[in-house]
Amino acid sequence: MDHKHTDYDLTLKGPIRLTSDSVQVTDADEEIFILYSELQIGGAASTDFRGLGYLDSRKDILEIKFELKGVSEAPSTTPTKKSKLRKAPKEAKTTVEIELMQDKTALRSRKGDTGSVLWKARSANPRHFLCDRAQTQPYSIDFAQLILEQYHSCASNSLFNRDVLGSQNVLELGAGTGLLSIALSPLVKRYTATDIGPLIHLIEKNVSLNFSGWPNIPAGSGSNVSVEELDWIAVESSSPTQRRKIYNTVNNPVDLLLVVDCIYHPSLIPPFLATVDYLSTPGRTAVLIVSELRAEDVMREFLDKWLCMPGWEIWRIPNEEIGKHYAIFLGWKN
């Protein structure tokens, strides 16, 4: 889908801006060599990674605050029951508050369940914090901080084109606790948070905790959020007819497919990519995959299999605010 764009947008794929420093990925081995070489040059080899660890094992409810600087205008969102926006005109700052429940019991009892809690990641961003003063913060928070601040400051180097983003139907894979659906839904036309069945109730509880009256909100913040079960393995193993029952891409085409930190287990790569391929409408759906650089072999396999899928073009989008521990990939199906 073509859109008008500014001088800052060398190419616009859906709402995502490809600027001059974006790199088209054509060889998985070469890309992995570049990424992990830069990681080690930066003084943090991939072997130093602490591994997955959740944010706070004692908390059932986490209060998250985003402190946004450089806000050029009052955000269009309306304060809700728990998700509040407070503007301090003198300092041009805005604070966004979100409360999240996490299911620690599910993490211990359900094999393969990593979405029921907030996870630690390499982050030292001083502009957001948790009220319980956890020393490390989950990457989904970093990503939300980046997008919210770029959006509300109208930054010229934003990952997203602000005007186009507001017209987008967004679907998130692996939504986990539902944090991004709460933080980013006010910026888009429609936001669908998806994950495996056992996590749906948790996401629904968090959405309703932050948007009073959800899901029966006629208009305003939260009214554009839906929560749906979407199992990648089920999509991969289903016939075309069955897939349409899981998610109908004809009736609800996806403009932006968002995936944040879901590449960590090699067995999930084939069903994950099958799901990405099915949900993507050629020439319309922009796929944004943000991943921490963990095991080289897993990232190599992911990129290699994605590049082998017919019709796909893939770019890596550098971002200094993200840091070298993470990679941002844009996929576009022709």
Automatic annotation (TrEMBL):
It comes from the Eukaryota. Keywords: Methyltransferase, Transferase. This is Protein N-lysine methyltransferase METTL21A. It comes from Psilocybe cubensis. The lineage of its organism: Eukaryota, Fungi, Dikarya, Basidiomycota, Agaricomycotina.
